[in-house]
Amino acid sequence: xxxxxxxxxxxxxxxxxxxRIPESCRAHAVEVARFEWHQGDPGDPAVLLEEFLHRNAAxxxxxxxxxxxxxxxxxxxxxxxxxTGAPSPAPTVPDVAAxxxxxxxxxxxxxxxxxxxxxxxxSWTPAGHARAVGRVxxxxxxxxxxxxxxxxxxxxEYAGDPRRALQRVAAIQGARYAGLMSGAGxxxxxxxxxxxxxxxxxxxxxxxxxxxxxxxxxxREVLLASAKERAEHVMIVDLERNDLAHVAxxxxxxxxxxxxxxxxxxxxxxxSEVEAQVRPGTSLAELLRAVCPGGSVTGAPKLAALSEIERxxxxxxxxxxxxxxxxAADYLDLGLTIRTVAVDEHRVHVWAGGGITIxxxxxxxVAEADAKLGxxxxxxxT
Length: 382
What we know:
Shape: globular
CATH class: Alpha Beta
Radius of gyration: 20 Å
Largest sheet: 10 strands, antiparallel
Number of strands: 18
Helix content: 25-40%
Number of domains: 1
Distance between the termini: 22 Å
CATH topology: Anthranilate synthase
Number of helices: 10
Order of helices and strands: HEHEHEEEHEHEEEEEHHEEHEHEEEEH
CATH architecture: 4-Layer Sandwich
CATH superfamily: Anthranilate synthase
């Protein structure tokens, strides 16, 4: 007998809104306007989002605090005319969502109920995942691409109230972008450590993460010494330098940190920082097109990698491998939605993968994706 889900309408509460909301607004936030766009809807999602935020004062700073924003992987690809991939397994979740908030007294939060999770069902077998890695290596050997990020998906039926489980996901150690965003019939929880784009004044920053090892002293040494991991990482850093150059003052793009090893839950991950000075007059839509979808979850060259992803992945990425964060008058802060969970009326969905180079070992890539999902699944099951 299938599990019986609870309605997710109760999750639509400003107090649980997305990551990076300012402290001054977080405890007393009231939703004043909402925008949702699904793939297949008319219009350019980057332009429509910017117009919505201007229309509702989110980019002027008065009288609202700003807006929580969610952008799916497919929406990011659509912004640059790239292949958008297979259909999302959670189509209720919008491809773009934005919620504008003002300070006020939020509605009371309903009591959290019990939660029961059924067995996980993967969208492909480990052998299927390994075959996809092999096909990427063949594409690299042909000269079609330099690197492709391959992502798998799993889902499970659930019963009861998912909010406490989603809060546990957002509380995973090492999450820089930790939060929830939700609407009628859907919710997304994020525990991402990765900055897709941060802007304060004229300075813009991206912090790509590429390279993973177990969070042990030995794992750290192996990651630091791995020529394969470093080459893969530097390739994505170069891609991000090129992405920022589309909107940067000439000569201002620089790598301020390279291959720094940091911890996320039970894993070491390698992170770099790329910054630039944005050109005066650059619009929000132009900023989004420069970085979406994130290079560390696509590959290089980006458009060619998106075509390979569409060819290989049987299930769409939904809100994963996109962006979640906060946009306000004086800053923008969007995290890349790795380590992200989506919930619809019937199932909970998770995604994980890794960057594939010519030297990638298919079964090692399968194991790495499983390791990335481990803390997320544990948080959901506790």
